[in-house]
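anyone seen this seq b4? input:
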Amino acid sequence: GVELGGALKNVIAIGAGVVDGAGFGDNTKAAIITRGIAEMTRLGDKMGALPRTFSGLSGVGDLIVTCMSKHSRNRHVGEELGRGRKLDDILGEMVMVAEGVATCRSAVDLARKHHTEMAIFSEVYNIMFNGKEPHKATEDLMSRSIKGEH
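predicted toks r here
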């Protein structure tokens, strides 16, 4: 669970950055973070992690700082994507690695393997690798039916 939390939060941080870069507000970002922790917990549970692990520092704590910090490399990637820049251009300018880019591919594969719905991860994947427009991806996420975030 700790390992999954430490890896998966980077993808959610990219999604939070997209929200910032595309000009959506704090409530939208809060929804991404809240639904993100639910997605992380669902996958972790299916993979044998203790769900409560994601409520602690290696889940919620690490997720919040990575999604909110101006120093977060993954949030930066998302912010630039939200502004309409291409992933290759963003990564080409970076000195350090944004782990969430590679992690996103793995997370989407794991979600398929474990039959787990992970809409945020799918939309971040679609923005980065399938050219989906960030505003459309965010609007699609925000217009999904309300589900329990547990």
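The chain has a mean pLDDT of 94. The chain is about 70% helix and 0% strand. kinda curious what u guys think
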